[in-house]
Amino acid sequence: MKRKLTEKKLKQLYRLLSVRMTDFDCGKECAPQNNGVPYCCDQGKVTPVLFKDEYQWHRQQGGFWRRMPVKTKSDRKLVEESCSYNVFAVCPGVQNCRRTARSLTCRLFPFEPFLDSSGYVRGLLYQDGDKGSCPLMEKQQHIYNQVYIRNAIRVWQELVDTFPEDKEMYVRESRKRTRHAIRTNKPVSLFTYIK
Fold first, then answer.
1. Bridge partners of 111?
2. Other CB atoms within 10 Å distance of the CB of residue 94
3. I need a surface site. Which of 64, 113, 144, 152 has the fewest CB within 10 A?
């Protein structure tokens, strides 16, 4: 059965992620160290991945997003090795950002889900590999809006339930993170909803 993100579902997910992540503009923290551009908006460093249904929905809304131009062999390899339901995309840039048009990827950064072996999202983790680039990745849970954390967990659960390949990938990644935590004797820093 082909799984899809319908317009109704996308609107629901976007509504859940319309809550502010923090009480401050995190882009103002890292932009000065990155030539005036927030790390997550630097198209030379980060390429957002949109779900194909999400990309098409945005195109119907006026074309804020466009496909990433394939300029190098590494770009081509990235596109060829991605799931068929993903689209690598670029926006008009931070100067022309329309916050309401930000993708799910933008709204969820810098988090990824932590799943148990049955595929249930137990909480959020910082994405692996971007530490030191995003100032949020040094922060503790108390700086985050708890409604955002709750909603992001709900959105991730919906996404991994819709896309089984992503669920499998995040189950593997969560196991890997758990093994690393055991090996290094450092706990997994999991962000969960605190009532």
1. 126
2. 15
3. 64
Task: Give buried/exposed letters for 4-42 (b at 16+ CB in 10 A, else e).
Answer: ebeeebbeebbebbeeebeeeebbebbbeebeebbbbbb
pLDDT in tens, 106-152: 999 899 999 999 999 999 998 876 666 777 777 787 888 999 999 99
Which H/E stretch holds residue 86?
strand 86-90
Q: 83-96, pLDDT tens digit by residue? A: 888 898 988 888 88
User: How many CB atoms sit inside 10 A of residue 128's CB?
Assistant: 11
Q: CA-CA distance, 80 to 139, in Å (whole number)?
A: 35
User: Please, which residues have CB within 8 angstroms of residue 121's CB and are 6 or more apart in sequence?
Assistant: 113, 114, 115, 153, 156, 157, 160
Residue position matching structure tokens 């708890």: 146
At 39 the pLDDT is 79
Instruction: Answer yes or no: are the C-beta atoms of 62 and 102 closer than 8 Å.
Output: no
DSSP 138-178: G--GGGB-HHHHHHHHHHHHHHHHH-HHHHHHHHHHHHHHH
